[in-house]
Amino acid sequence: MTEPLLITPTELRQHHYCPRVVFFERCTPVRRRETVLMTHGREKHQTELLRERRRTLSRYELTEGERRYDLRLTSPALGLTGELDLLIVDGTRAFPVEFKHTSRPPDPGHKLQLCAYALLVEAELDLTCPHGYWHSSRTRQTHTIPFDTRLRNRTRAAIETVRGFILAERCPPPTSQPVKCLECELRNFCGDTL
Ligand code: SF4
């Protein structure tokens, strides 16, 4: 029996940034090199997770909750697999938390990523996720992201879209914002963009 195709919440965020990034990773031998900026962001991310273990829950406006770190979750039914930075569990409710080293607020791609983790938590742990948190280690701001019906539907639709072009090995259209291509390390492979 063939294994179901699983995509990651991170790939949903990458797909929102540019659909071709995921296509190159999944359907071609082309791999992105890790830039200095990416390495720096990854190291800051780890530092933030270590600091989080010493903090209270006050930034989440929660008084109680069990923290579960680096939670790996897989749901063949959703077609998703991924590792969540942090899940705070309070009774039957749970709150996924993502950390990012950026000075920008969360964009729609970040919200899709966080909501995908919420869908995984609900499907696999039988908990309810009313909202999640997205924390910037640069600005020290914590944003609350509600998992409303619209975001949930958009997340499910994005999963289907990404799975669809990977299964069909069909190159998706480029980003609609060509300015992103100027600094993209995949530019040499996207002959039709600039
Ligand atoms: S060059 Fe542009 S279209 Fe191609 S992967 Fe990069 S951002 Fe996307």
End-to-end gap? 43 Å
The level-1 CATH class: Alpha Beta
Specify the biggest β-sheet.
5 strands, mixed
Helicity level: 25-40%
Rg, Å, rounded: 17 Å
Number of helices: 5
- Total number of β-strand segments? 5
Uncertain residue segments: none
**How would the global form be characterised?**
globular
Q: Spell the H/E element sequence.
A: HHHEEEHEEH
Question: How many structurally independent domains?
Answer: 1
Mean pLDDT: 90
Q: Strand order within the widest sheet?
A: 1-2-3-4-5
The kinds of small molecule bound in this structure are: iron/sulfur cluster
Instruction: Please identify, by name, the CATH architecture.
Output: Alpha-Beta Complex
CATH topology: Lambda Exonuclease, Chain A
Derived from helix and strand composition plus strand pairing, the structural class reads alpha+beta
* Strand coverage percent: 15-25%
Provide an overview of this structure:
The model has no long low-confidence stretch (mean pLDDT 90). 38% of the residues lie in helices and 21% in strands. It has a five-stranded mixed β-sheet with strand order 1-2-3-4-5. It is globular, with a radius of gyration of 17 Å. It has one domain: Lambda Exonuclease, Chain A, CATH 3.90.320.10. Helix 1 (9-17) packs across helix 2 (19-27), helix 1 runs antiparallel to helix 4 and helix 4 (108-125) crosses helix 5. It has helices at 9-17, 19-27, 36-52, 108-125, 149-168; strands spanning 66-75, 80-90, 93-100, 131-136, 142-146. It is of the alpha+beta class and 194 residues long. The chain contains five helices and five strands, in the order H-H-H-E-E-E-H-E-E-H. Iron/sulfur cluster is lined by residues 18, 20-21, 174-175, 180-181, 184, 186-187, 190, 193.
